[in-house]
Design a protein that fits this description.
102 residues, two-stranded antiparallel sheet, flat
């Protein structure tokens, strides 16, 4: 996954339904572009040296893969909707900086 985009780094937390059950994945971009040895075509580094980003993005993507399916269940969705008035415009402004829009 390339580094860049609207927030500088990228990540996804997909889940896949299979015959073996629910499979959960987490994919995040490197924090630095990867340098390559032009002669041997061997990678010299992988760009995952920013611990703060890796932890922050891991928590974020964990939510997509594990928490969202639980919150999407009808009984849980009703509970969340009961408190949606707490998601004020000022809170939404703060949350937008963390890639949460609703």
């Amino acid at each position: 996954m390339p580094t860049g985009g609207a927030y500088g780094y990228r990540g996804i937390g997909p889940y896949v339904y299979s015959d073996d059950g629910l499979l959960i994945y987490q994919v995040i971009s490197a924090t630095l572009p990867v340098s390559q040895d032009s002669l041997a075509n061997d990678y010299l580094e992988f760009g995952f040296n920013n611990k703060e980003f890796i932890l922050r993005n891991s928590y974020h993507e964990f939510g997509h893969a594990f928490i969202n399916p639980i919150l999407a269940k009808e009984k849980n969705s009703r509970i969340v909707e009961k408190y949606e008035y707490l998601f004020t415009p000022s809170l939404q402004k703060v949350m937008l900086k963390q890639n949460y829009d609703n």
